[in-house]
Automatic annotation (TrEMBL):
InterPro entries: FAD-bd, FAD/NAD-bd_sf, Geranylgeranyl_reductase
Alphabetized GO MF terms: oxidoreductase activity
Swiss-Prot/TrEMBL keywords: Oxidoreductase
Residue span, FAD-binding domain: 11-329
SUPFAM superfamilies hit by this protein: FAD/NAD(P)-binding domain
Keyword Oxidoreductase: yes
UniProt keyword Chloroplast, yes or no: no
Organism of provenance: Nocardia halotolerans
Record protein name field: NAD(P)/FAD-dependent oxidoreductase
EC numbers, comma separated: 1.-.-.-
Pfam families found in the cross-reference section: FAD_binding_3
Length: 471
C-alpha cells in the first residue's frame, strides 16, 4: 500500500529562510502583488550566529523595507562616531550619510530578525516557522519547488516559479543545485569570537570602536538592552585544542592581549556564553539557475571583519525581488533577470570582497597600513574615506590612489625601517595585481562562463503530485 502523497500548493515564489535575505526578498515580492510562502526551520524570535553591526548603508536598507522604525524601537543606541586604534594612532570619524542615515547600529539578531519577519508578513507574505525543507523538486533542469516537513511531522509540497535559497552558508538549496562548491574562495586568516557584556555606563554609548594590537583585532559595539558586543578576531588556529572550553579560553586570552579593549570592558559584566566562528572562508558561489536563486550568505559570504553581511543580505534580497517580480510568469525572461541580478551582485561586491580579505589576513599591521593610520589620524578627509568604505559610499580604490600610495610610501620610509617598507611595497603591488586579475577574470561579472556544474546533481523529473526522492 503506497504512502499518501502530500497536498501540492502553487505559489509564485517559495523562500527558504526567513531572516535578512529571505524577509527582504519576500516582503518586496509580496508588495509587488506576488504570492509568497517563506519556510524556516526556526521559530521567531530566535538567535543566530552573527556579529550584527549595521553601517548606515544597512540601516538605509531597513528603511527601504519599512523595518527601520521597528528595529530602532528595540533600543540599540545610534552609533554616531567611529574610532579605530592601531600602532599608537587613533582615527576618529563620523559616518557618511546613506539616503539620509548618518549613524550605525548594533542590533541583536533575536529582535532584528523578528522585526523583519513581521514586515514580510505585513507585506502579505506567509511565513511558516518550524518547517524544514527535505528535498528540492526539479522538472528536467528547472527548479520547480520544495518538499518540507512541518513541526507536526506532516509533509508539504510547494510548487513555485522561483525557489529562493536564503538559508545561509550551509544552504540546502545550494547543495541541491550543485552550487555548494564556490567558484572563488579565500580562507580567512582570523577566527571570530564574541560575547555580550552589561555595559558599565563609564563609556559613551554612541561610539563604535576597533583596536589592533599585534596580530589581534578587537571591537566594542554598544547594542540593545544596555549591552555591548565585544568581538575579537585573533589569528586563525593560534590557540591549540578544540572542544569544551576552547572558545572561552581563546576569547579571554585575545581580550587580554588588547589592553585598550580590556580597559573598555572594566566594570562591565559578561552576559551569556562566548560564540565562535572558526575556519571561515570568504566566497562567491554560482547563485542562479533555472528557477532558483541564492541571496545572502547562501550565495556570497565575506569575513565578518568588515561587517558587510547583513547589509548585503538585505540589499540583494530586495534587488532580487525587484528584478523578478514582473517576469515570474515567463521562464525565459525570469532566467535572464536572475542572471543580470547575479552579475550585478558580483560586480558591486568584488572590491569590498578583496578589501575584506586583506583585513582578514590575521597579521600585524604592515608598514603602509601603519602609515595610513598615522595620516588618517591627522586628515579628516582621509578618515572619512576610510569610514565610507565600510558603508560602501567610497571604494577602496579611492583610498589607495597612485598619488596617495606614493605619499604613504614616502612617509613610511621616513618613519619606519626602510627594508620593511620596501618589502611591504613590493607585496602591495603584487596583491593589487592579483586582485585586479581576479576581478577581470573570475569576478568579471558572471559565474556562467566558469567550468563548474550548470545542472543539479541527481536530476529528478517530476509531475505535479508525484513523489520526489529526497536528497
Amino acid at each position: 500500500m503506497s504512502a499518501a502523497l502530500p497536498t501540492v500548493e502553487w505559489v509564485d515564489a517559495v523562500v527558504v529562510g526567513a531572516r535578512c535575505a529571505g524577509s527582504a526578498t519576500a516582503a518586496t515580492l509580496a508588495r509587488a502583488g506576488r504570492e509568497v510562502v517563506v519556510l524556516d526551520a526556526a521559530a521567531f524570535p530566535s538567535d543566530t550566529l552573527s556579529t550584527h553591526l549595521l553601517w548606515p548603508a544597512g540601516l538605509a536598507e531597513l528603511r527601504r523595507l519599512g523595518a527601520l522604525t521597528a528595529v530602532e524601537a528595540l533600543g540599540a543606541p545610534r552609533l554616531t562616531n567611529a574610532f579605530a586604534h592601531g600602532a599608537g594612532h587613533t582615527v576618529a570619524s563620523s559616518f557618511p550619510a546613506v539616503d539620509g542615515v548618518d549613524y550605525a547600529m548594533c542590533v541583536r539578531r533575536t529582535g532584528l530578525d523578528t522585526a523583519l519577519v513581521r514586515v514580510a508578513e505585513a507585506a502579505g507574505a506567509e511565513v511558516r516557522s518550524r518547517c524544514r525543507v527535505t528535498s528540492v523538486l526539479w522538472d528536467r533542469n528547472r527548479c520547480v519547488g520544495v518538499r518540507y516537513l512541518d513541526d507536526a511531522g506532516r509533509v508539504g509540497e510547494i510548487r513555485a516559479a522561483l525557489v529562493v535559497g536564503a538559508d545561509g552558508r550551509r544552504s540546502t538549496i545550494a547543495r541541491a543545485a550543485a552550487a555548494e562548491r564556490p567558484f572563488l574562495t579565500v580562507p580567512s586568516g582570523r577566527d571570530c569570537y564574541y560575547a555580550y557584556w552589561r555595559d558599565s555606563g563609564a563609556h559613551p554609548r554612541q561610539v563604535a570602536t576597533q583596536w589592533r594590537a599585534g596580530a589581534d583585532l578587537g571591537t566594542a559595539f554598544p547594542c540593545d538592552d544596555g549591552l555591548v558586543l565585544c568581538l575579537v578576531q585573533p589569528p586563525a588556529g593560534r590557540a591549540d585544542g578544540h572542544g569544551r572550553g576552547t572558545a572561552e579560553r581563546n576569547y579571554t586570552e585575545a581580550v587580554a592581549r588588547i589592553p585598550e579593549l580590556t580597559a573598555r570592558l572594566r566594570g562591565c559584566t559578561r552576559v551569556g556564553r562566548v560564540r565562535a566562528a572558526t575556519r571561515l572562508s570568504s566566497y562567491f558561489r554560482r547563485s542562479t539557475g533555472p528557477g532558483w536563486a541564492l541571496p545572502g550568505d547562501s550565495g556570497h559570504f565575506k569575513d565578518p571583519v568588515t561587517a558587510q553581511g547583513i547589509r548585503d543580505a538585505l540589499r540583494y534580497g530586495r534587488l532580487l525581488a525587484e528584478s523578478v517580480a514582473g517576469v515570474l510568469d515567463d521562464p525565459r525572461a525570469l532566467d535572464a533577470a536572475l542572471a543580470r541580478w547575479e552579475r550585478r551582485r558580483i560586480t558591486e561586491c568584488r572590491e569590498i570582497f578583496h578589501w575584506t580579505n586583506r583585513l582578514a589576513l590575521g597579521e600585524a599591521m604592515r608598514p603602509l597600513e601603519i602609515e595610513l593610520y598615522r595620516s588618517a589620524a591627522a586628515d579628516p578627509e582621509l578618515a572619512a574615506i576610510t569610514a565610507g568604505i565600510f558603508s560602501r559610499t567610497h571604494r577602496p580604490a579611492e583610498l589607495y590612489t597612485p598619488a596617495r600610495a606614493l605619499h604613504l610610501a614616502v612617509r613610511a620610509l621616513r618613519h619606519q625601517d626602510t627594508s620593511a617598507v620596501l618589502t611591504d611595497l613590493v607585496r602591495e603591488i603584487g596583491d593589487s595585481g592579483r586582485e585586479w586579475l581576479t576581478s577581470r577574470t573570475i569576478l568579471h561579472g558572471t559565474a556562467t562562463d566558469l567550468a563548474i556544474p550548470r545542472t543539479p546533481s541527481h536530476l529528478t523529473t517530476t509531475r505535479p503530485g508525484e513523489p520526489v526522492e529526497s536528497r
